[in-house]
Design a protein that fits this description.
This protein is α/β, with parallel strands linked by helices and 201 residues long. Helices cover 35% and strands 15% of the residues. The protein has one domain: Aminopeptidase (3-Layer(aba) Sandwich). A hairpin with a 3-residue loop joins strand 2 and strand 3. Helix 3 packs across helix 4. The longest helix has 23 residues.
């Protein structure tokens, strides 16, 4: 979840977690799906909270769903796993990561996380995902120079072995306001649409 304005009624399900989709990453996914849909890109938005009621096993549960969707809809080309980061100080205070967008507002910063075969698990096409991430990162930073935090390449797979075109997108951090995260999701989806259109020409 994100941090709504003081006084907002929220039922928390854990530390900076809620099943209320007005204040968590599901809402960001809704925003992304709307932008892609408006651009004519078909979207299947899985609004399941795979880290609830327990974070443990979340990736395994998500992978089962991904495999099921790929069987049901073999034309799926891209999978975005939407997360938020958590950055806190020694006293547990949550930080926000922001990017002022001139004429638009304040956006949460984002991080693209790319998995690899560094853990020894099979992931033969991870470089394809990295190429997509680099293209998106370059486009986003050209358009919005402070929007993206450094791209992260990890040893874990994060289920990105399921198909090429898989990315983990961290939209802001727990300290960010929901509105900042929504703006980030909208900007990301707009630019990804442009990148995909450019690559398909």
């Amino acid at each position: 979840a994100y941090t709504p304005a003081p006084g907002t009624e929220v039922v928390w399900s854990g530390d900076y977690r809620t099943t209320d989709t007005r204040y968590n990453v599901v809402k960001v996914g809704d925003e992304m799906a709307a932008v892609f849909g408006e651009a004519g890109i078909s979207v299947l938005h899985d609004r399941t909270l795979y880290d609830y009621p327990s974070y443990s096993g979340a990736y395994d549960r998500a992978l089962s769903a991904i495999q099921s969707y790929l069987t049901q809809y073999p034309s799926i080309r891209f999978i975005l796993d939407v997360h938020r980061d958590a950055i806190e100080d020694g006293q547990g205070n949550q930080y926000k990561v922001v990017s002022p967008i001139e004429g638009v507002g304040t956006s949460a910063q984002m991080t693209l996380v790319v998995g690899s075969d560094g853990s020894g698990l099979t992931h033969p096409d991870w470089l394809e995902n990295l190429r997509l991430a680099v293209a998106l990162q370059q486009d986003l930073l050209t358009e919005y120079p402070t929007l993206m935090r450094p791209l992260l390449l990890r040893n874990s797979r994060y289920n990105q072995h399921a198909t090429t075109g898989s990315l983990l997108v961290e939209v802001g951090a727990a300290g960010n306001a929901p509105e900042e995260a929504l703006l980030a999701g909208r900007l990301f989806a707009q630019r990804m649409t442009q990148v995909l259109r450019a690559q398909s020409k």
